[in-house]
């Protein structure tokens, strides 16, 4: 068998995209709650006049309802168990625990919800894989403190992480600190709470925010290790191979520079425990000042590195600095590049590259020699219910089959791979567009982009396919 015994097959969601109940039981607002739905979402948030205000007369806010996982999690987890999940990656909504973020005492109702969610997973033998912060920092911290560029947020996060580990560490072995921490290179509003009005266009603020997150991540590792000796705490990032558009050395170097900035910088610090020597080059490239550090920061980073790398993989990108007029911009997961003429694309323009996953796994393993965990992967597509009431998503099965085959090949190459939790194992609100029509799940949720629908759950063809994949430890997909 190519996949190890105990391989963590499962699925992944995020609180702000599936829970809904955005103001229930004492929950405060998060940055995600202030992000409007629709394909204009990122352009609205990126506008100079955006100030985190919620404008229901002007926009819709699908995150407020999500798929009502908050009230229907038992039904959903039962479906995950029917598929045979070994793990379920989910996030804890920071503002459900600390509504504003800077309180001294947590919201007990929020903690009780995650008690129930974790216990429901364990009831079925499903390992919880918990992301501490997944694009959902308390809105108050973004508005009143300026997001992660403010050092005080480290203290608030430390208090939050301490509560989580004290409460759940004995039940939860697998953790990740910040979801897609490197996404701030292109769009800092999600992970750093930075917008134009609070200095997002100045990369000095982004690098400073990253430093504070690195310190916070190291503190989380330190706290978690004090609670449980076998705990596993990872970092999490977007990873995408960035190919040179052609063999021109200029494009080769541009690809290397982009790879360092986007794919490696944040993991270099969290896995190795120190800043890379190319930081000086990055700061020059992005016209930024070096982040300010406090006494003890470097020692903290060095002594509290992560145990594994969790990453999302959806696509690859091509980099072209020499003949931009000969190439088309490509859509992607919070990254920039050009279209690769050798690849097909999804309905949303994301390029499909299964071999790129094998390349990614080998690159990360060769660089770090720590276990790897694919915690997001999948195909966003429009699903239709046919006249027989079925959802025949062969396109999704084909996508995932090819990616699992690439995982198998990488394991045969020698990569230490922990698990695979495809994104949006149940349909949820897309982060990039706020749409329900961009579906990833094995389970269909009856809800449209305008918020209409019964929220009823329905199995897709891929449900039974993935069930067989798990039952055979991946062999059914090869």
Describe this structure in words.
The protein has 478 residues and is of the alpha/beta class. The protein has one domain (8-477): Glycosidases (TIM Barrel, Alpha-Beta Barrel), CATH 3.20.20.80. The protein is built from 15 helices and 14 strands. The protein has helices at 15-18, 41-46, 69-83, 94-97, 108-123, 139-144, 152-168, 188-192, 203-227, 249-272, 279-285, 297-303, 354-368, 394-413, 461-471; strands at 8-12, 87-91, 127-133, 174-178, 232-238, 242-244, 308-312, 317-319, 344-345, 351-352, 372-376, 417-420, 443-445, 457-459. An eight-stranded parallel β-barrel has the order 1-2-3-4-5-7-11-12, surrounded by four helices. Strand 9 (344-345) and strand 10 (351-352) form a beta hairpin. Helix 3 packs parallel to helix 5 (108-123), helix 7 (152-168) packs parallel to helix 9 and helix 9 (203-227) crosses helix 12. It is globular. The termini are close together. The mean pLDDT is 96. This is Glycoside hydrolase family 1 protein. The active site is at 376 (nucleophile).
């Amino acid at each position: 068998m190519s996949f190890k015994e105990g391989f963590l097959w499962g699925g992944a969601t995020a609180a702000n995209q599936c829970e809904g109940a955005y103001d229930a039981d004492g929950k405060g607002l998060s940055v995600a709650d202030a992000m409007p739905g629709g394909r204009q979402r990122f352009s609205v948030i990126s506008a100079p006049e955006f100030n985190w205000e919620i404008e229901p007369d002007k926009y819709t806010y699908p995150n407020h309802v999500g798929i009502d996982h908050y009230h229907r999690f038992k039904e959903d987890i039962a479906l995950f168990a029917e598929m045979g999940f070994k793990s379920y990656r989910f996030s804890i909504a920071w503002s459900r625990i600390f509504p504003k973020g800077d309180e001294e005492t947590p919201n007990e109702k929020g903690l009780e919800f995650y008690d129930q969610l974790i216990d429901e997973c364990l009831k079925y033998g499903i390992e919880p894989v918990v992301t501490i912060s997944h694009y959902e920092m308390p809105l108050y911290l973004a508005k009143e403190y300026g997001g992660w560029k403010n050092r005080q947020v480290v203290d608030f996060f430390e208090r939050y992480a301490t509560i989580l580990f004290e409460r759940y560490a004995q039940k939860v072995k697998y953790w990740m600190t910040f979801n897609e921490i490197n996404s701030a290179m292109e769009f800092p509003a999600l992970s750093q709470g930075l917008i134009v009005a609070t200095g997002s266009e100045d990369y000095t603020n982004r690098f400073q925010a990253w430093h504070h997150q690195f310190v916070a991540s190291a503190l989380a590792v330190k706290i978690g290790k004090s609670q449980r000796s076998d705990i596993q705490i990872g970092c999490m990032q977007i990873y995408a191979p960035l190919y040179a558009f052609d063999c021109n050395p200029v494009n080769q170097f541009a690809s290397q520079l982009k790879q360092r900035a986007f794919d490696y910088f944040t993991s270099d610090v969290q896995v190795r425990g120190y800043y890379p020597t190319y930081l000086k080059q990055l700061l020059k490239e992005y016209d930024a000042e070096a982040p300010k550090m406090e006494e003890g920061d470097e020692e903290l980073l060095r002594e509290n590195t992560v145990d594994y790398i969790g990453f999302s993989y959806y696509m690859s990108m091509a980099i072209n600095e020499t003949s931009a007029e000969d190439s088309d911009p490509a859509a992607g997961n919070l990254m920039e590049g050009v279209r690769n003429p050798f690849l097909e694309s999804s309905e949303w323009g994301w390029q499909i590259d299964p071999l790129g996953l094998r390349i990614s796994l080998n690159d990360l393993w060769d660089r770090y020699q720590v276990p790897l965990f694919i915690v997001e992967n999948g195909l966003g597509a429009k699903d239709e219910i046919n006249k027989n009431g079925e959802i025949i998503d062969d396109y999704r099965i084909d996508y995932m089959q090819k990616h699992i085959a690439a995982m198998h090949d990488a394991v045969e190459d020698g990569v230490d791979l922990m698990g695979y939790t495809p994104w949006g194992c149940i349909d949820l609100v897309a982060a990039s567009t706020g749409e329900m029509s961009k579906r990833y799940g094995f389970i269909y949720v009856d809800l449209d982009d305008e918020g209409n629908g019964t929220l009823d759950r329905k199995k897709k063809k891929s449900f039974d396919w993935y069930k067989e994949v798990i039952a055979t430890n991946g062999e059914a997909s090869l």
